[in-house]
Amino acid sequence: MQINQALAKACGIALLGLCSFNGYAASITGQVNLNASVGVSAFSIDFYSNSAQACGIASPNALGCFGINNPISGSFNNLLLGYQSGNTIKDLSGPPITGSMNISQFIQFANGITFDLTKVLPGSGPVCDASQGNNPGYVCTPTVTIGVNTFLSPFTLQNSSAGPSGTATNAAVSFNVEVLAYLGLASTGTSSYNGAFSTQSAGMNIAGILATVGSPNNGTVVASYSGNFNGTPNNPIPEPGTLGTIGIGLAALIVGSIRRKSGSVS
To answer: Regarding predicted confidence, which is higher, 246 or 92?
Structure first.
C-alpha cells in the first residue's frame, strides 16, 4: 500500500511537469540607438520632452522621450524609426550622479522592452583644469563640490580642434551607463547592456561648459544627444515550465528508488 501511494505521488509530479512548457525566458539581443535633446547641469541630467511629437513631460525629474535611429537589430528590429509614443526615459539627479543605483524603468520602448539602470560610470578624463578649457583637443572630467564633499561627474569632455583664433570653439560630451534589459518582468530573465550617451556639439568649448554649469551661474547646457546600447545576454532565468521538467526528473528518481526497494523486499 505504501509503495502504491508513493507511485501515485511521483506520477502526479510528472504530470504537472508535462502540463507545463519547458523553456527559458527570451533574452534581449541586438543594438538600439536613441536620439533627442537634453539639459545638463551640475546636479542633473534632464532628458527633454518633445512637444512637437507630443511625448514626454516638460519638467525636471519627469519623463523625457526620444526617437529611434539606425542601426537597430535583434529584439529592437520592430521599433519604428523616429519618435513613437511609448519611448520614454527618466531624468537623473544628484550629486552624485555616478555609481551603482537601481532605477527601474529608466528607459522604456514602445515594443515593451525595458531598461533598468544599474550603474552610471564616472568620466574617464583627468579632473578638469579650467585654465586649459580653451585648449584644442583638451580632455577632462568635471567635478561637483557640495560643502566639503567633491564628486566626480559622469561626463568626459573633449575640446574640438583649434578655430580661427587658435582656441577650441566646441566640445563633445559623453557618459556611459549599465542597464538590465528585459521584456515583461525582470524576474523572467534579464540581459546586460552597456550604453553610451554622447553629443558631438555642446555649442561651446570646455571653458564655456565649466563657466555655465559652475558656481555662481549654476546654469544648464542644452544639446542634442545620441545613445547607443549594445549587450550580451546573461544566463537566462528558467521559466516555470523548466521547473516542471525538473519535477519530472525528481519523479523518475522516486520511482526508481521505489522499484529498487520493492525488489529487495521480494
So the answer is: 92
